[in-house]
Amino acid sequence: MQYSAALRFLQPYLPSRLLAVTLLSILLNLPVIGWAQCGTCNRTINSNANDITIGSNETVCIAAGVVFTRNINWNGSGSTLCNSGTITSSFNINSTGNTFINNGTVDARSFSVNSGTRFINAQGARVTLEDLSLNGGGIVNNSGTIDINPGNNRNIPLSGTITNAVGATFTIAASVNFNSGGQLNNLGTFTVSDINNNATIITCGTFRQSVAGGTFQNNGNGLVSNYGLFDIIGSFVNNGVFDGATQGGVGILRVTRNSVQNGGGSFAPTGRLNFCRGFDRDNGTTNTANVTCSTSQATAGCANSPLPVELTSFEAKLSKGSVFLTWTTASEKDNEKFVVERSANGESFEAFTEVAGHGTSSSGFSYSATDLAPLPGTSYYRLRQTDFDGTTAYSPVITIQHASTNATNKLGVYPNPATDYITLDLPKGVKETYEVRISTVNGKLVRRLNLSGSNPQLDLHALPAGTYLLEVRGANTQTVQRLIKQ
Hints:
Elements: H1 17-27, E1 43-45, E2 52-54, E3 59-62, E4 67-68, E5 72-74, E6 80-83, E7 86-87, E8 91-93, E9 99-102, E10 105-113, E11 118-121, E12 126-134, E13 139-142, E14 145-148, E15 155-158, E16 161-164, E17 169-178, E18 183-186, E19 189-197, E20 200-203, E21 206-209, E22 215-218, E23 223-226, E24 229-232, E25 235-238, E26 241-243, E27 251-255, E28 259-261, E29 266-267, E30 273-274, E31 281-282, E32 285-286, E33 291-292, E34 309-319, E35 322-343, E36 350-361, E37 366-371, E38 377-387, E39 392-394, E40 398-402, E41 412-414, E42 421-425, E43 434-440, E44 445-451, E45 457-459, E46 466-473, E47 478-485
Parallel strand pairs: 1-3, 2-5, 3-6, 4-7, 6-9, 7-10, 8-10, 9-11, 10-12, 11-13, 12-14, 13-16, 14-17, 15-17, 16-18, 17-19, 18-20, 19-21, 19-22, 20-23, 21-24, 22-25, 23-26, 24-27, 25-28, 26-29, 27-30, 28-31, 29-32, 30-33
Antiparallel strand pairs: 34-35, 35-36, 35-37, 35-38, 38-39, 38-40, 41-42, 42-45, 43-44, 43-46, 46-47
């Protein structure tokens, strides 16, 4: 059985095939690793001047570098807010089918994810809140960092679905009530002060209860499937079901203080667990055949089965005006090729080269590709890995700054962002005709004309709002820069 592409590039802290398929069935409808792109922006917010009102089926993007403090009003359904800047507004994701994608920073008092909506925190993105409300049917998918600190140790109610990806951290410095119907799929590090659990927790990473005076209490409706490490700094009380790895390895349960199992509680009824602490009081069901005791964590159930392609690094460096991309794998299975994709805005990507894979191998390989003509300013790169059967998966997105030292690249364009017209500041005193091209970030030419003079104007009325590449060519000069049409 093949692993789905949705789990391809998770690092090697992953479960057996059986658990991978189980987790996949849970996570398939979510962008597990947070690499979801925003698609085409209907509007791009480049300043903090006005409130944002988002209508139905609309994608609104907050540009990188913008610190947005105004109100965000979510009036429609099926819409997306994509942030690459910094948001300090407290707001709710309302209505059915709405999505908030954070590629930047959110630093706000409160944030609500209501039923039928979802919040995606991408890799490298950061969220700092005083309060989070996750209502039934709401989805939070974290591939970056989320820190919640109410400051008054009050309870945080959660009743939706949380996915915490490999390498991600989700920290709640408060007591948590995880309500019935909720679900946590944890492949990273999830930390709470203490918790009353009535939901389903499936962890292949680290779940940590972090306060010595706190408790992890698994209530009658609670179900925990532990394939990684459950690290309880305080006390552990089980009134529900707590089991471990079902195929290969064990899940580790480590308790520092008291361990209590009450009537109705069931400990390791199916999977295997490593639990050396024992119970101070055991009135429930303990299947000792499924419990081992070892001080080593090397046999944890999440580390015993390699993935078809394990990506261990992906980097970009500048070298003599080019961008040199390198990546390495730990092992490969059915890997046909890598397609290297590039973007000017982190939203719309185009392929610019392919590198053949090594099929199936238990050894790792190093790969490289060179972008000989990188875009000016910030460029975004990602890998699209393709199997022989056509299934694909995407790597995290990396960025690099490229600033040309060629004086001809210092073309003046104002205003930028623009609405109706732009003015080009061409070299003065040079009697030359310049070819001007405007293309989409995917390379599609949308306009071409010839201009001369020192300060010619371009009419932009016919261009839809979005990000473009403006290229000016002369007899001895060529320059490219971004143009934002609002």
